Every structure is written in C-alpha cells, then in structure tokens.
Amino acid sequence: MVLLSRRGIELAISTLVVLVIAILLLIGLAFFLTGGFARFKEATKPFADTTESTALREACRLACTAENYPSFCCTRYALGDERVLCTDSRLDVECAAAQCEQVFCQ
C-alpha cells in the first residue's frame, strides 16, 4: 500500500486554487477588453432611466404642490442625456394651477 504524502496533497489543492483564480482574472480581463462592461451598462440603463425619471417625476409633483411655479415651468432637469422641463409629456405630471405662459423664466 502506497502512502500519500500530506504535503503533496496540500500543494495540489493550493495550485488548483491559484489556477482557478488566474482563470477568473483572465476571463474578467477578456470581458473588459472586449467592451463587456459597456454592454453591461447598456443592459442596466433602462432600469437606471426608470429610477431617474421616477425621481424627477416626484420632484416635479412636489414643485407643483409647493406652488413653486418658476421651478416647475422653467428649470431644465437632466434626464439621461437630455434636459427636460416638468411640463414634458413623458413625465406625465399635470399641474393645473401652473400657468407656465405667465411665469417669467430667466
């Protein structure tokens, strides 16, 4: 019967762990170099836009409720790559009391 040395088994296990880590690092590097993170950002962009537009919608509703009409009618907010007003139909915020034609925007 052949006895295996414990030292040899430990060396083999540590070598396997190092090889697995090295392979994972190489996969991550290849993913980075092929633009994988840009694709990841594009895949998560609709979720981020939804969160961003929800926050902007709520801010516009608060401006209307607080009767802050210059902010509601004049301030352009960043929504993605665009600058939009609270009156933008995509935000779906209605403020009947705001008469933006009569508000003086600087």
Descriptive account of the structure:
This protein is mainly alpha-helical and 106 residues long. It has one domain (7-102). Helix content is 60%, strand content 6%. It has three helices and two strands; from the N terminus they run αααββ. Strand 1 (77-79) and strand 2 (82-84) form a beta hairpin. The termini are far apart.
Index terms:
single chain; 106 residues; mainly alpha; two-stranded antiparallel sheet; rod-shaped
SSE run: HHHEE
Backbone shape: rod-shaped
Q: What is the percent of helical residues?
A: 55-70%
Main β-sheet description: 2 strands, antiparallel
Tell me the strand order in the biggest sheet. 1-2
Strand content: 5-15%
When the domains are counted, the total is 1
Radius of gyration using CA atoms only: 28 Å
Number of strands: 2
Q: What is the residue-mean pLDDT, rounded to a whole number? A: 81
**Separation of termini?**
92 Å
Question: How many alpha or pi helices?
Answer: 3
Question: Summary?
Answer:
This protein is mainly alpha-helical. 60% of the residues lie in helices and 6% in strands. It has a two-stranded antiparallel ribbon with strand order 1-2.
